[in-house]
Request: fold
Amino acid sequence: MDDLTSTVSAQDINDAYARLLTVVRRTELQPNDRLSKLYECEVYLKREDLQSVRSYKIRGAYNLMSQLSSSERDAGIVCASAGNHAQGVALTCALLGVCGSVYMPQNTPRQKIDRVRAFGGDNVEIELIGDTFDDTYAVAAQYSRETGKTFVHPFDDPRIVAGQGTVACEIAEQLGAGNEPDFIFAPVGGGGLVSGISVFSASALKQVKIVGVEPAGAACLQAAMANHGPITLEAIDTFVDGAAVRRAGELPYNICSQLLPELVTVTEGAICTELIKLYQTEGVIAEPAGALSVTALAAFKDRIIGKRVVCIISGGNNDISRYPEILERSLIDQGLKHYFLIEFPQRPGALRRYLDEALGPDDDITVFEYIKKSNREYGPALVGVELTRNSDYLGLVERMKAIGLRYEVISRDSALFRFVL
Ligand SMILES: Cc1ncc(COP(=O)(O)O)c(C=O)c1O
Reply:
């Protein structure tokens, strides 16, 4: 813990908290009935999706930018972000009257781009460049070096880590003395939030177990731990855009390697299922990164029984156009949606036989793509089937075999599968 005092201390987080009092919302800490019953424990959701910029990112951004010298502010600032830090920076630019250049990946959801524009107004110019956050970061950092503008890092800066750590101050205050949490589940991108929470907890919530949750397709902090230092992941899945980072921050890594929050990964499909439950049951609009914490509870079900558990819903900037993909990924994750390439004999009645004898009464065809080839015996068709229960799958493939159909299951890691999705 001593090594950390030169980087981020609990005092820095308390100071950040005081600085942020009039700027950030003290978001609700809501008891959640559904998850409490399901896991036989006391689950609370820390609703950072209700923050002014719909994520906790304003905390770090304002804490950093409000401490810049006047020459650093006058130079203008630059940031690179997957879209949420950008909103925190844009709002802070407007509040402090600073000019900012905000770099985001080209595939940033439109909703996030629009919100950055709305918060920053004339103070902010937006550049969309790069396929992933890390590509964008490289260009923005270069621009900052060339122009002398001040770089506002999304996670690798003590002032950012201290700002994000204020989420834990609020949790401690909201639960009150004697009611400290046993677990706090926090999402991880570059590691700013989980390291800030870990520092605060090491001094003020000593018995709490911090769990950092990463998407399986971008687990850069786990990779850093295994490598004894940040390492760049070759390929990442950018679906959980808020947490799709190739390389964990040096400072978050240093903090985490000393304070050792437990790290866990969850699949993108499981995140989608949880995201839909939050929406349908509680009316919570979380973005994929915002649902990471809750998704991880399943892997801890034996350890959290009877405990007090806080899940940080870190953000709610979910572009509406993403919902069809979220629904699809969730159905696949639950084993309710399957794709096949079926070789239909090219004779009348072949499809009817499939419908009558292979498909179960509750199975539904959702995709059927077939091009008739006139001079071949068999013609392949792409068939998507939605089941009512995942246990219906075995019966379906057995009936397909029984009528002699030749078929291939389209595997989740094939290019064809990605084409369908
Ligand atoms: C909604 C949301 N959750 C979690 C994260 C992960 O952030 P960190 O870099 O602090 O680990 C981000 C990062 O942008 C985010 O936007």
